[in-house]
Design a protein that fits this description.
Length: about 190
């Protein structure tokens, strides 16, 4: 099967990464469990608004963008390797600002992510997959609207909510198990 896998919040621990960088630069004591909303990062980081957060996130001549400072979630890459070994196609489907593209590809290479394809897309539903795994509330809604005949998995995080038409995933082990018990035709 073609598995459409999101990066930030699913494979890469975006919140731990930006918070470590924030602590290094500003001396903050933020923790990932403090994030309970999709669009509240600027408030936690003390930025005036989301635009200010993303200007900081972009990096500078002195440092790469935050997308080079992320660590994978435990079990994420090993699970993707196992799924690929089982002959599934790992298709990365992520949304990134233009300035983050190079750092994203470097991150993928640094972590030797076992991907057959990488799509940087604002409308993830336009990438044809049998299964989608994402954490973004608006992306999950769009996938359900446009790809209801596919399996759509919500990686449960404090910043998202249950979405009718998705399968809740609590861990990478659970995702591997769900994929192991599915066939492409199960959801079409």
């Amino acid at each position: 099967m073609r598995l459409g896998i999101d990066l930030d919040g699913v494979v890469a621990d975006f919140n731990a990464g930006w918070m470590k960088l924030h602590a290094d630069e500003f001396g903050s004591e933020l923790r990932p469990e403090m994030v309970d909303r999709w669009d509240g990062l600027h408030q936690l980081g003390g930025f005036a608004d989301n635009s200010a957060f993303w200007r900081w996130a972009r990096g500078s001549e002195e440092r790469a963008s935050i997308f080079r400072h992320l660590e994978p979630y435990p079990g994420a890459i090993d699970s993707l390797r196992l799924l690929r070994k089982r002959k599934h196609r790992i298709v990365i489907v992520t949304t990134k600002p233009n300035w983050a593209r190079v750092d994203t590809f470097r991150w993928l290479a640094d972590h030797d992510l076992p991907s057959n394809e990488v799509h940087l897309a604002d409308r993830k539903y336009e990438v044809d997959c049998d299964v989608y795994l994402d954490d973004a509330p608006h992306v999950l809604d769009e996938l359900v609207e446009h790809r209801s005949d596919r399996m759509i998995c919500r990686f449960v995080r404090p910043w998202n909510r249950p979405v009718v038409g998705t399968v809740d995933i609590q861990s990478w082990d659970q995702f591997v198990e769900v994929i192991g018990s599915s066939r492409p035709t199960d959801h079409r």
